[in-house]
Amino acid sequence: DAGVTQSPTHLIKTRGQQVTLRCSPKSGHDTVSWYQQALGQGPQFIFQYYEEEERQRGNFPDRFSGHQFPNYSSELNVNALLLGDSALYLCASSSGLDRVDSGNTIYFGEGSWLTVV
Amino acid sequence: GEDVEQSLFLSVREGDSSVINCTYTDSSSTYLYWYKQEPGAGLQLLTYIFSNMDMKQDQRLTVLLNKKDKHLSLRIADTQTGDSAIYFCADTSGGSYIPTFGRGTSLIVHP
User: Fold this and answer.
1) What region does B9 belong to: left with phi over 0, alpha with psi -120 to 50, or beta?
2) Which of B37, B39, B58 is nearest to B47 (CA)?
3) Which of A42, A100, A104 is facing B101, going by the closest CB pair?
4) Do A94 and B41 count as a contact with CB atoms less than 8 A apart?
5) Does A17 touch chain B (CB under 8 A)?
6) Contact A94 B96 (CB under 8 A)
7) pLDDT for A97 beyond 60
8) pLDDT higher at A101 or B76
9) Does B45 touch chain A (CB under 8 A)?
10) Is the backbone peptide bond immediately before B99 cis, with ω within 30 degrees of 0?
């Protein structure tokens, strides 16, 4: 049973460029969330996708956008990259918002390390 | 808004117990989680506790929840060098199921 998989694992971009990160959720999960983890910090919530729609969004600018596909996989896009966007981007999957009895366990991928120069 | 706080560092000797503490401010928290992050890696879910419980044990891990004081702790028995990592506490407020993370506690285990 594959867990949450993310690609690429590492990438370097130049200021002003655009980047797309990809995530495949754990088998059986239909909800995908994206987090940004700067060095020395805890993960910060960017947004969550469920049924191909953005359900909730954290305090991130519109330069951060996403998409969820019918197979539940997801992409995170960041436009007009800034040096401050350098971070580990984590994808997390879960089995849906209403399954309280499941413990709503949330599993993370290994992340994509983005360096903006 | 929600706030989760943890001490930044904890150093223990191999074989001793480690206790990592966390406080949160949102009284409507439903689930509280502990995650482990090894260097250069993603977050590994260690355990979670539902807000109507006050204790959960899973092998070497014991989670204690004091809802009145909004205090969560993770005890690791017989700590090993492989337990060296950053441990994150996270809570979810009612209805959102979006974990809010603390800054993490760096656990250092020395021989």
Assistant:
1) beta
2) B58
3) A42
4) no
5) no
6) no
7) no
8) B76
9) yes
10) no
For the cut 60, the answer to whether the pLDDT of residue A99 exceeds it is no
To probe the interface with B, which of A108, A113, A115 has the most B CB atoms within 10 Å? A108
> With pLDDT > 90 as the criterion, what percentage of chain B qualifies?
69
Burial A21-58 (b: 16+ CB within 10 A, else e): bbbbbbeebbbbbbbbbeeeebbbbbbbbbeeeebeeb
Q: A104 pLDDT band (50/70/90 cuts)?
A: low
| Predicted confidence (pLDDT) per residue in A4-43, tens digit | 999 999 999 999 999 999 999 999 899 999 999 999 899 9
- In this prediction, residue A101 has a pLDDT band, given cuts at 50, 70 and 90, of very low
- The answer to whether residues A108 and B43 touch, using CB atoms and an 8 Å cutoff, is yes
Helix, strand, or coil here: A24?
Answer: strand
CA distance B23 to B69: 8
Closest by CA position to A93, among listed A85, A102, A84, A101: A102
B34-55 pLDDT per residue, tens: 999 998 888 998 998 988 889 9
Using the predicted structure, report yes or no on whether residue A67 has a pLDDT greater than 70: yes
The CA–CA distances, whole Å, from A106 to A70, A99, B80 equal: 20, 12, 26
Strands (E), chain B: 4-6, 9-13, 18-24, 29-37, 43-50, 55-58, 61-66, 71-76, 85-93, 100-101, 105-110
d(CA A74, CA B51) in angstroms, rounded, equals 30
